[in-house]
Amino acid sequence: MSDIHVLSPEVVDQIAAGEVVERPAHLVKELVENSIDAKATRVHVEFFDGGRIVKVIDNGKGMSPEDLPKSLERFATSKISKTDDLWKLKTFGFRGEALASIASVSKITLTSRREGDEQAHQLVSEYGKKSEIDKVGGSQGTTILMENLFENTPARLKFLKSDAAENTAIKTTLKAMALSHFDVEFRIQENGKLVNFWPACKSRKDRVEQILEIKPMYEGEAVRENVKAYAVFADPHNVAKTARNIWMFAQNRWIQDRSLQAAVNEAYRSLLMHGEYPIAAVWVEVDPDCVDVNIHPTKSQVKFQNPSLAFRAVAGALRSTLEQAPWIPKTAGAAANSGVNSHLSAEFQANDFNSNFKSTEGLPNFAKQMPAMPKENLSFEDASLSVTQFQKKDFSFPTTVNQPKIDYQTLAQAAESRQDFAGPQTSNSSEVPEARGYWSSLEVLGQANLTYIVTQNREKIVFVDQHAAHERVAFERLMSAWKGGKIDIQDFLFPLAIDMSPEKVEAILTLSKEIERLGVFIEALGPGTVGVKSAPLFIKDTILGNVLDRMAGEVVEQGGSYSLERAVGDICATMACHSVVRAGQALSVDQMKNLLREMDQFPLSSFCPHGRPVSVEYPFYKLEKDFGRIV
User: Where in this chain does the record put each DNA mismatch repair protein S5 domain (predicted)?
Assistant: First the structure.
């Protein structure tokens, strides 16, 4: 007697249900995707008891009476007909398994009506057993009522989480579906109570602001060969404690992708503190034949033909806008100077940090007293060594500067001048006023606790952390010098050999051109060895080997890497932190004004290189409210 036998259709369907419908949230996703594929512009979802009862109503094109029973058969679909169709999909569903799988583990009532039909038709299926089709009343579209989920499979029922947890997963799924379809109205009811209503919007940005309830959000896009990324995201002041508010979409499908999530985090490098995560929604579009959407039972993952392009496109889409710091109010002067710094990601200013301070002739007092970089070449054993070397060079402001004293009359005059912060008016009307950015347009009132520069404008008082502000200025100049090729490069007499796996060697060589732009030149010395021919002088050999190995690993695992830039950024941040003005040092009014002018040269001056905010604002209306002037 043969030990091999063919499984019954019921068992096959339940096996498929275990893959496609792991939990009620996956079921809801499949049903809503069917509604979207049916060209619905309104989707109404109700769910009860942690998703064991779900009802989805749409106004799509509906189904004919003949198609109702077919829709519950396995591998029955209207969306593809041959293998090639898998590589040019324009729909979200395509396998023909979802409804059949759901029907095998629940009771389904399927009601549908097409445009032009006199009435709707209804089909009831109990755990795969279909009833006769009835004529019923109903509007155009399809209504699916799913009840008693997993009632016939008690073992699977035990694996469901609490009702609250399952309800949360369903709402998260519906939020993602609404984000990806801004032109569709969504109405969500939980246990009979309306919890969300999202009318159709005109754009993705409007939808993101509507659902995530953050305004304003910012946009950015980038193209890397055949990969296009579009992002809507919050500024670095609006952050989350987890990565759950990073929403990723590929071909407008909601997906989970660690590599693309890492690309979003990379874009916010030096703008967030440890434990902070961005809030963003990102869409990646690529030619249909360059992405495989059929690699996961729940279609929650995709595979790109070239993951590195997707990584770089996502990082570029966010970074291109972030580096313009659109959250900083634009003044007339800032608009005039915007062409200089608005595209730092593409062309960095080649201002050598050393040369800026070699000569102080004609510079303001503040610049004259800023620290100069040492002339000798530095070799860093580690970050602490570089700090020690910089501290020995006495990179501090003179401690003999008298603390500015502000008397009552000075404060009174400052209060009277709140209506005009453009500076003293000139008698010659033909002179063009000096262009001023946001920071330099602030009126300096003084220094608080020898640490914070106290400024104001018409609407608020702004406290500026002098150490964090100066640290960002120094950091940006160091990074600009490095990216502008102004850092000394050393050629090795013999290539520095770095051993790594053949897979990593192949991965790192694909980035050789990008790495060369950063001053590191590599070549293959063997199947498991990479040779470094030259590198920036201030990067120690041991650091370089670890960085390149980590970079290769990130390329293999995530499809993209900024490890080298990140490592250099960490070194530059340490150098900047220990070579600038510190808290507790007195500054003159001129020095404070000059620091604010320096900040205007770099759009990301609102954050120090470690992600700490540079300024804190207190609106005057809050002061007036605290003093009882307004209620």
Answer: 208-323
